[in-house]
Amino acid sequence: MAINGRIKKKDIPEGLWLRCPGCEEMVYRKRVEENLHVCPECQYHFRIGARQRIALLADADSFEEYLANLMSPDPLKFVDRKSYIERLADAQRQTNLYDAAVVGRAYVKGRPVVLGALDPNFIMGSMGSVVGEKVTCAAERATDLGLPLVMCSASGGARMMEGILSLAQMSKTSAAVGRFSRAGGLFVSVMTNPTTAGVAASFASLGDIILAEPGAMIGFTGPRVIYQTMRQELPEGFQTAEFMLEHGFVDRIVSRRNLRSEIASLIDYCVRQT
């Protein structure tokens, strides 16, 4: 009901609008979704799930998933405020995924690739044994098939609930990417918001070409931890994709709308050169 020409908050359907973290404006949710989950006012790139990411990059009906039903067995029987098994179940219900990585074979504008993405909504896209196995599988399949590898990272790092088994995935995935590289493969790493900690320190930083979405947070650990360790003020914009580009850690920043075409162009160029 309107009072004095003003619409009361309760008259607005829930979920119709959302606040953009970039410009802090209220934006119409449908406009954001139609704009590939990018704010139409300030171009802030909202986080999206792994399957959404793959749908944006892969040609229609071309994605063939690897290891789709792989699940963690909770090797440490980890419990804090709740058990790891409960956390996994919550994340599985929220995302409709078994774990945080989705990998498989696909076509990107007609170019065959092995394509993968991490889901930031599944325990912050953290890398446990399942994510490590899927990334390794993607690299090994790309090696066997002689295809480019495209991995889209969105992760808070290693998954603490799996302890040293999680940290071991850093070397495991890096070794697989190394074997792929020695076989002459092209690895395009796409860093999205956030790409941090164990993922940033392993396979995500090993791309032959490293792309990033605008404004993505990229780095090993958070600014607060770094400040508490070094007791030094950090540069403005530290750990943004733009800062990383300026300092040579990222090759190019590409908006979500152009990412698919950019990957296809890079594949054409690199394959032609080799």
What topology does this entry show?
Blueprint: E1 2-3, E2 6-7, E3 17-19, E4 26-28, H1 29-34, H2 50-57, E5 64-66, H3 84-95, E6 101-108, E7 111-118, H4 129-145, E8 149-155, H5 163-182, E9 187-196, H6 197-200, E10 209-212, E11 218-219, H7 223-230, H8 241-246, E12 252-253, H9 256-273
Parallel strand pairs: 7-8, 8-9, 9-10, 9-11, 10-12
Antiparallel strand pairs: 1-2, 3-4, 5-6, 6-7
Description:
This protein is of the alpha/beta class. It has two domains: 14-46, no CATH class; 47-273, 2-enoyl-CoA Hydratase, Chain A, domain 1, CATH 3.90.226. It has helices spanning 29-34, 50-57, 84-95, 129-145, 163-182, 197-200, 223-230, 241-246, 256-273, and strands at residues 2-3, 6-7, 17-19, 26-28, 64-66, 101-108, 111-118, 149-155, 187-196, 209-212, 218-219, 252-253. The strands form three sheets. Strands 5, 6, 7, 8, 9, 10, 11 and 12 form an eight-stranded mixed sheet that branches. A two-stranded antiparallel sheet has the order 1-2. Strands 3-4 form a two-stranded antiparallel sheet. β9 (187-196), α6 (197-200) and β10 form a beta-alpha-beta unit. α4 (129-145) runs parallel beside α5 (163-182).
